[in-house]
Amino acid sequence: NGNAGFQQVLERLESDPVCQRLSLKSFLILPFQRITRLKLLLQNILKRTRPGSEEEVQATQAYDALEKLIKDCNENVQRMKSTEELIYLSQKIEFECKIFPLISQSRRLVKCGELTALDYSTLSPKWKVTTRPIYLHLFNDCLLLSRPKE
């Protein structure tokens, strides 16, 4: 998004009839779609092979290898999404002191959301309740509380 030259070239390529007006994302997702289609194909082959035959053994081995490949792909996609979330969050959060490295290979964001903190003032004779928004970021190894910049 920050590189105007790249954006112009990308728009020109995506509008080209050869690309059939498909976006870059659609081309990037194609290999994953093919892998899942291969899985369906192998399932159909397994249904039609004779039980106990050499073809069934080979098709089962191919299916198991494909299952492992799909599992690895999904895990890598999840890892990349998690890293992207951490990068985005590290750009949004400002620490008073930089002793907490937010981006880590082993860290992943589990859940985040906004809550309302209630502050009770005990200085006045009547209880006064004030509210302010706070954000909770639950990671697999810690909990981070943040508040909007004033």
TrEMBL record:
<feature type="domain" description="DH">
    <location>
        <begin position="1"/>
        <end position="76"/>
    </location>
</feature>
<protein>
    <submittedName>
        <fullName>ARHG5 factor</fullName>
    </submittedName>
</protein>
<dbReference type="InterPro" id="IPR047271">
    <property type="entry name" value="Ephexin-like"/>
</dbReference>
<dbReference type="GO" id="GO:0005634">
    <property type="term" value="C:nucleus"/>
</dbReference>
<dbReference type="GO" id="GO:0005737">
    <property type="term" value="C:cytoplasm"/>
</dbReference>
<dbReference type="InterPro" id="IPR035899">
    <property type="entry name" value="DBL_dom_sf"/>
</dbReference>
<dbReference type="InterPro" id="IPR000219">
    <property type="entry name" value="DH_dom"/>
</dbReference>
<dbReference type="InterPro" id="IPR011993">
    <property type="entry name" value="PH-like_dom_sf"/>
</dbReference>
<dbReference type="GO" id="GO:0035556">
    <property type="term" value="P:intracellular signal transduction"/>
</dbReference>
<dbReference type="GO" id="GO:0005085">
    <property type="term" value="F:guanyl-nucleotide exchange factor activity"/>
</dbReference>
<dbReference type="InterPro" id="IPR001331">
    <property type="entry name" value="GDS_CDC24_CS"/>
</dbReference>
<dbReference type="Pfam" id="PF00621">
    <property type="entry name" value="RhoGEF"/>
</dbReference>
